């Protein structure tokens, strides 16, 4: 009795006790690794100490203690009320830790598969048996729901070789981490392979600890950093592009270890972390590098909290981390401006070659522009008179490049005819004149030097489309003369076209701006075209049709 | 300024000299006729057309085309009306360009007020409609320093918003983003005129290099 007292004293919680040492560290899910390193290994220190100490006292305690230590559980010995925390025992259980239930089976003689199958079939409550293993004659497995556990305990099963199955049940702390050895790594790889859908390029890691092939042998919840790290490492080593990564239902508190995906530049387009335990959006801090387009964050404490404020706040906050996000919790967000290109150290929206406020006009746009420039390049430009409205307003402006770019070629021919309202401010001369009407316009166009346009350099912006008009802004590069290796000019044409009664289009307002092509433009000009565009007149479809007086009445 | 204007006028009238001589006998009659009708028109309509934007040459060349037997006052009036619109648009454009680039460089919030509610903006091909998009984009662009080299403005023959006169402006110049290198740009606007001021209905910005 005396010796027992001593033991009991030592086992009591207290300032110097073992329990206090581990209090707060031992039981928290995340802190398993913080405290234990790999989990399990360091703890064996304490294990040995106590075991060595208690060996003196007989088999019973030794056995039980080892069990406790290995499994991170309270003692299964119900008969000792002092150490049964169900009756207000000494163990400290911090908040948020859900207790598991350990089912003990005496004298196991059948295979795991048989046994578990029979139990699952017989039990009225659904459950998943986790981490089944044998210790001596005893078989143990863990069950999360206590209802199922108590149901199991009351089962009466008889198996052929086994005889009557005797159950023991107790509450216990969550299963401690197991060190990840080769065998487990291979197992994990198999699991990941199975859960990866190559057609949809999606990886489903929801409820990972309940994975059928995994849970009977191991308990690998992704909420524990060690496990998450390992899984992410395997992913990063094998998959480069993931359309969808599903991490729901994993009791995740933070997503730190997803950082590995960012480091190894795995492209994840959609991430599902719904039904987890994320308390703050800062978990995404390290994941900013992911090119996420869709995020599911529902059923997380943070989501509920943010949504209480307003939907807008929720979206805005999430957008701060993932500006390119398009879908949030199955809500489509308005298309954001993407920041990709760094211009002089600042992030700018990426240049798009084309913007059409309504995609339907694409065909008309291309037809018209291509026809126009075919005739323009080939000549004679008088054929273009059909493309112009009777009372068109045409204005030409020319200006040199900014001084820093340098101007290799003289813009004299254009400057002569150019109209620039800035001139009045700068030098008080007449600004130049606007050409009215077809004949003046064609006269001017014919006076300009011959040209060869580079269709690859064309950049379109169509911002206004109505029944009566279409506003087109076209920017590009052309070479003077017939030789595409001659003098390069850059032009911007801002014009309005109207549909004509005969089914074609004509220009009613036309602005032409000409400058020298910059060095950057020169480099990429005419990379594809070797010969200037030469097309026979017979292949022209009817597009440029003359307009009648009806047009005037339209306006 | 008056001197150069006169010189230009005389220069343009030179090729007409033989025709005028043949019909009217002296060089200056057309010029006087134009001026007279012009001043009459001004008095009648009590407008104060700014001479600097007047394209007298255009008037004269048109007259040459349409009638060789003297100046038709009705046609001249029509021409002057259209010239009026032209010069009016030029004035509005002048004020607008100054205000726009000033606000863009120094106070972007002011800029947002200049856009209509359903304006369309396209910045290097990134386009969208509506004030929210415009705000988003404008505030996302890094600090700029614009230098306008040239701009030109004409009234639109068919107005995109029926009943509301509009003008088209094409601006070219150079811009520095956040004190970086100078880059050539071209920007085109469609302004809808309300109470003598223009509000942006369409805005297309393109850097020349890209």
Automatic annotation (TrEMBL), chain B:
Q: Which residues form a coiled coil?
A: none
Which ranges carry the NTF2 domain? 92-207
Which example biological process does GO assign this protein?
Answer: nucleocytoplasmic transport
Which InterPro entries is this protein grouped with?
NTF2 (IPR045875), NTF2-like_dom_sf (IPR032710), NTF2_dom (IPR002075), Nuclear_transport_factor_2_euk (IPR018222)
Identify the CDD domains for this entry: NTF2 (cd00780)
Q: SUPFAM superfamilies from the xrefs? A: NTF2-like (SSF54427)
User: What name is this protein filed under?
Assistant: NTF2 domain-containing protein
What organism is listed for this UniProt entry? Artemia franciscana
């Amino acid at each position: 009795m005396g010796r027992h007292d001593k033991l009991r004293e030592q086992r009591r919680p207290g300032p110097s006790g073992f329990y206090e040492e581990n209090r707060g560290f031992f039981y928290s899910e995340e802190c398993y690794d913080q405290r234990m390193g790999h989990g399990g290994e360091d703890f064996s220190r304490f294990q040995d100490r106590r075991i060595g100490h208690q060996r003196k006292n007989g088999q019973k305690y030794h056995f039980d203690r080892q069990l406790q230590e290995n499994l991170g559980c309270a003692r299964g010995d119900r008969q000792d009320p002092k150490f049964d925390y169900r009756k207000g025992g000494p163990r400290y259980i911090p908040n948020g830790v859900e207790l598991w239930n350990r089912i003990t089976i005496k004298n196991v003689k059948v295979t795991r598969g048989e046994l578990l199958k029979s139990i699952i079939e017989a039990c009225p409550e659904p459950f998943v048996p986790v981490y089944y293993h044998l210790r001596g004659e005893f078989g143990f497995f863990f069950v999360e729901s206590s209802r199922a556990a108590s149901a199991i305990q009351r089962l009466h099963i008889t198996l052929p070789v086994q005889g009557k199955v005797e159950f023991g049940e107790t509450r216990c702390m969550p299963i401690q981490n197991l060190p990840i050895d080769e065998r487990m790594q291979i197992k994990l790889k198999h699991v990941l392979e199975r859960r990866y859908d190559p057609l949809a390029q999606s990886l489903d890691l929801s409820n990972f600890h309940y994975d059928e092939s995994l849970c009977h042998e191991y308990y690998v919840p992704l909420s524990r950093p060690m496990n998450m790290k390992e899984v992410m490492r395997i992913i990063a080593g094998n998959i480069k592009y993931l359309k969808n990564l599903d991490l729901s239902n994993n009791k995740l508190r933070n997503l730190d270890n997803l950082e590995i995906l960012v480091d190894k530049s795995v492209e994840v387009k959609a991430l599902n972390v719904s039904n987890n335990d994320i308390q703050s959006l800062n978990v995404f801090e390290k994941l900013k590098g992911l090119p996420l387009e869709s995020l599911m964050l529902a059923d997380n404490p943070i989501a509920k909290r943010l949504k209480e404020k307003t939907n807008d706040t929720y979206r805005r906050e999430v957008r701060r981390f993932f500006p390119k996000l398009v879908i949030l919790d199955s809500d489509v967000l308005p298309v954001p401006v993407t920041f990709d290109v760094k211009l002089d150290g600042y992030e700018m929206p990426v240049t798009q070659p084309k913007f059409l406020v309504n995609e339907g006009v694409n065909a008309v746009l291309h037809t018209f522009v291509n026809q126009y420039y075919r005739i323009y390049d080939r000549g004679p430009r008088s054929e273009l008179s059909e493309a112009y409205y009777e009372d068109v307003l045409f204005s030409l402006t020319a200006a040199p490049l900014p001084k820093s770019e340098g101007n290799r070629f003289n813009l004299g021919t254009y400057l002569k005819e150019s109209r620039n309202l800035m001139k009045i401010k700068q030098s008080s001369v007449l600004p130049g004149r606007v050409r009215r009407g077809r004949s003046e316009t064609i006269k001017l166009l014919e006076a300009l030097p011959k040209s060869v346009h580079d269709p690859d350099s064309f950049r379109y912006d169509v911002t206004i489309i109505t029944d009566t008009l279409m506003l087109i802004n076209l920017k590009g590069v052309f070479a003077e003369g017939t030789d595409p290796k001659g003098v390069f000019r850059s032009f911007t044409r801002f014009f309005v076209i109207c549909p004509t009664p005969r089914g074609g289009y004509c220009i009613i307002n036309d602005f032409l701006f000409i400058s020298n092509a910059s060095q950057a433009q020169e480099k990429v000009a005419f990379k594809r075209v070797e010969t200037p565009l030469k097309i026979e007149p017979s292949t022209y479809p009817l597009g440029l049709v003359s307009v009648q007086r009806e047009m005037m009445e339209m306006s | 300024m008056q001197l150069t204007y006169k010189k230009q006028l005389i220069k343009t009238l030179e090729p007409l000299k033989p025709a005028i001589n043949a019909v009217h006998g002296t060089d200056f009659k057309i010029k006087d006729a134009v001026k007279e009708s012009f001043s009459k028109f001004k008095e009648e309509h009590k407008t104060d057309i700014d001479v600097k934007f007047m394209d007298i040459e255009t008037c004269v060349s048109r007259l040459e085309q349409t009638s060789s037997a003297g100046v038709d006052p009705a046609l001249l009036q029509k021409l002057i009306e259209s010239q009026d619109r032209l010069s009016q648009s030029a004035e509005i454009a002048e004020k607008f360009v100054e205000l726009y680039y000033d606000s863009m460089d120094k106070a972007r919030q002011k800029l947002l007020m200049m856009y209509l509610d359903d304006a369309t903006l396209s910045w290097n091909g990134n386009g969208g409609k509506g004030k929210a998009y415009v705000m988003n984009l404008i505030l996302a662009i890094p600090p700029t320093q614009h230098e306008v080299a040239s701009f030109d403005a004409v009234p639109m023959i068919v107005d995109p918003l029926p009943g509301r006169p509009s003008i088209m402006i094409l601006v070219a110049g150079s811009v520095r983003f956040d004190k970086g290198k100078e880059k050539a740009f071209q920007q085109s606007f469609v302004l809808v005129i309300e109470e003598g001021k223009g509000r942006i209905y369409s805005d297309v910005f393109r850097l020349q290099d890209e």
